[in-house]
Amino acid sequence: MAGSDGGARRRGRRQRLSRSADFDRVYREGxxxxxxxxxxxxxxxxxxxxxxxLGVSVGRKVGGAVERNRVKRxxxxxxxSVAPELPDRHDFVVVxxxxxxxxxxxxxxxxxxxxxxxxxxxxxxxxxxAA
Length: 131
Prior knowledge:
Helix content is 40%, strand content 18%. The protein contains three helices and four strands. It has a four-stranded mixed beta sheet, with helices on both faces. It is globular and about 35 Å long.
């Protein structure tokens, strides 16, 4: 499936962390970085293709099921925007803190992306082009 997509990264199901063991490995062996709204765990991996993979965890303290699902969707969309700047061959888990629900309600996709971008930048994970 090596089709040309104009250089854009595709984020299919295989680019997500879904198995409990994958989450556990990232939590246990990865590095964590936190802000008021989000916690990011990053773990370099040696197998699979080079694109970064994402796992999302949103607990009940964030809100009801509808709100939790909205936060997850917004985080995946935000990650999709930030992913081209992230290092390849890494697994990431984003944990939404209770304040993330309010951020999603009041700021929507734009604020969620800004919060995630701020977090990965503070963690030093954004790859800057060599000058």
